[in-house]
């Protein structure tokens, strides 16, 4: 598409974790006109609010990064909410994008859309070869549907809609609420709490499961590159191509936080999906993306941000 410098880009969820990085990257790539729907004014699950948003904002491009999501604990407790919220937002936003002649719609899916026992490394064509991990299946199904919606609207209406599938995200600005946070943020919070209280660190599962961890800044760079350069019906994986066990992840976080106590593995709690690792070759082939931020550095950076912002806020 034409340079983003001439486009008005709407980023749903633009004040959130990933969305705020997307906004930063858009400016870095020369976009001069970025608009962010205020969730207090626009409930993106309601058609009336979505139509009003498009009427007032007149975006050329929509990057849909808003989502209802969380870690294993949150997903297990919110199957219905996460299914409804995510399905409804994507359905209403893309339907209205078609009616308002939006030039490009960028849909952000999730690694949770993949089958529990997908072959590793997971390739985009394997997305429908099984059911998602049960602890996050409702959320995963919702994130599959948005990819199908992109393909359906592209085929029937000619809407330039693309779907991107990021792996597990982490980084500064993440949510550190233990009831909602993802793996890295949750473990940093647990380490700091155990360190403060002088207790052991209790980690869910056995530590044998693996994940692929992507810094949110890297993910945002991929999303903007795809917005600029990718026009295809096939969803594209966004990741690092590096697999890390939860046990090794805990080791990196323990070192970064300076935690010296005992580590207890609670195997009565679920591991979640056994392995996660993406084949990321298509992202490089289609729009020239490769991740840059290593996990060890990214975790240290995230811990520093947590200490500077979250801990200082608690002390005030």
Protein architecture, described:
- The protein has 316 residues and is of the alpha/beta class.
- It has one domain: NAD(P)-binding Rossmann-like Domain (Rossmann fold), CATH 3.40.50.
- Helix content is 44%, strand content 14%.
- It has a six-stranded parallel beta sheet with strand order 2-1-3-4-5-10, sandwiched between helices. Strands 6-9 form a two-stranded parallel ribbon.
- The radius of gyration is 19 Å and the shape is globular.
- The protein starts with 7 loop residues before the first strand and ends with a helix.
- The model has no long low-confidence stretch (mean pLDDT 93).
* Tally of helical segments: 10
Structural class of the helix and strand makeup? Answer: alpha/beta
In the predicted model, the low-confidence regions spanning at least 5 consecutive residues are: none
Average of per-residue pLDDT values: 93
């Amino acid at each position: 598409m034409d340079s983003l410098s001439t486009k008005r880009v709407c980023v749903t969820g633009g004040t959130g974790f990933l969305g705020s990085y997307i906004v930063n990257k858009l400016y870095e790539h020369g976009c001069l006109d970025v608009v962010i729907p205020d969730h207090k004014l626009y409930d993106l699950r309601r058609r009336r609010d979505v139509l009003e948003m498009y009427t007032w904002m007149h975006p050329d491009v929509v990057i849909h990064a808003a989502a209802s999501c969380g870690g294993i604990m949150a997903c297990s407790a919110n199957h219905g909410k996460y299914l409804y919220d995510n399905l409804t937002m994507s359905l209403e936003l893309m339907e209205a994008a078609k009616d308002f002649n939006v030039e490009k719609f960028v849909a952000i899916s999730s690694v949770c859309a993949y089958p529990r026992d997908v072959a590793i490394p997971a390739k985009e064509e394997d997305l429908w070869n099984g059911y998602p991990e049960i602890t996050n299946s409702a959320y995963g199904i919702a994130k599959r549907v948005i990819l199908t919606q992109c393909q359906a609207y592209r085929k029937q209406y000619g809407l330039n809609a693309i779907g991107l599938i990021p792996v597990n995200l982490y980084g500064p600005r993440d949510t550190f609420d233990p009831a909602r946070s993802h793996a890295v943020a949750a473990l940093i919070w647990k380490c700091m709490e155990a360190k403060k209280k002088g207790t052991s660190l209790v980690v869910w599962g056995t530590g044998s499961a693996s994940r692929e961890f992507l810094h949110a800044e890297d993910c945002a760079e991929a999303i903007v590159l795809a917005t600029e350069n990718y026009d295809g019906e096939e969803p594209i994986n966004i990741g690092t191509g590096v697999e890390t066990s939860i046990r090794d992840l805990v080791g990196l976080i323990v070192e970064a936080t300076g935690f010296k106590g005992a580590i207890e593995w609670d195997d009565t709690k679920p591991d979640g999906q056994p392995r996660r690792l993406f084949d990321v070759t298509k992202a490089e082939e289609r729009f020239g993306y490769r991740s840059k931020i290593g996990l060890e550095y990214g975790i240290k950076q995230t811990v520093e941000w947590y200490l500077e912002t979250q801990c200082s806020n608690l002390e005030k």
